[in-house]
Amino acid sequence: MVELYTAIVKQPDANQPTHPRVRNDPKMFPYFKDCLGAPDGTHIHAHVPDGDQVRYRNRKGDISQNVLGMCTFDELFCYVLPGWEGSAHDCFKLLWVMTLFRRLAATRS
Length: 109
What we know:
Layout: H1 2-8, H2 20-23, H3 29-32, E1 37-45, H4 53-56, E2 64-72, E3 77-85, H5 90-108
Antiparallel strand pairs: 1-2, 2-3
């Protein structure tokens, strides 16, 4: 799994200039000029023990794992967060990741 992650996921450089797709679109530039990418979630069907099925049941009633992916404007994955229950909302996962990164940054400084 780690080899697959390093082959597919490429971290963006925070010092890179605004992507041309954003910079050249007057509707996007004022709002997304500092963005490195965009998040999106997807559900992947899962097989879990009977005792865990309630947590993994998504809004459509299927048993699934909720995966959050972040993509750059070049449509490359820069972050993948697998393993969340199907009932977890994308916003909750994003807040969890942001909190984790803030804590990591605080411990490094």
